[in-house]
Amino acid sequence: MNSEPNPRPNPEPTSQPASGPTSRPAAGPGPDAPVRFDTKIAVLLREDLETWQRLNVTAFLVSGLGTTVPEVIGQPYQDADDVSYQPMFRQPVLVFEGTKETLTAAHARTLSRALPRAVFTSDLFATGNDRDNRAAVRAVRTADLDLVGLAVHGPRNAVDRVLKGARMHP
User: Fold this and answer.
1) CA proximity to 94, closest of 37, 42, 25
2) Which of 2, 33, 87, 149 has its CA 20 to 30 A from that of 41?
3) Residues 168, 95 contacting (CB under 8 angstroms)
């Protein structure tokens, strides 16, 4: 899984190019050189979810990474009319799918590697707020979580190993 296709090009650099330990120019020192990230942001969804569930789960999961791993957030955006927009991830988010067993195995590998992660369980479809969401996860032992989604951030190779058995989302 070290060479999965990127379904969309890297986002355009903002006014400040990505820097720091999680990115490096892929070729040459110029400002237009493509950026290759040493880290990966990935979302793994259970294959039996409805379309609306896939979108909802993905949105919730990536919000968790952005709040606890600040280095994945880029600079604010601004259009030509000087209207400002919120910053977003500074690297692509790759979305995968797999069976319930694939998701359970990926969760275990994420835990064993102590990677930053977010989970979404089937119970969260029946709740309507953050307090109830947290209570629903808190009520279930780790091994018994009915996972429908997992987001993970970490070194590319470690994330690739976590996602073993998953495939790119169609």
Assistant:
1) 42
2) 33
3) yes
How does pLDDT run along the chain (170 residues), one tens digit per residue? Answer: 344 443 333 333 333 333 444 444 444 456 777 778 889 999 999 999 999 999 999 999 999 888 888 888 999 999 999 999 999 999 899 999 999 999 999 999 999 999 999 999 999 999 989 999 999 999 999 999 999 999 999 999 999 999 998 888 88
Q: Considering the entire predicted model, what is its pTM?
A: 0.78
Q: Please tell me the total number of residues recorded for the chain in this structure.
A: 170
DSSP string, 33-100: SPEEESEEEEEEEETT--HHHHHHHHHHHHHHHHHH-GGGB-PPEE-TT--EE---BSS-EEEEEE-H
φ, ψ of residue 81 to 5 degrees: the values are: -95, 15
Query: SS3 for 111-147, per residue?
Result: HHHCCCEEEEEHHHHHCCCHHHHHHHHHCCCHHHCCE
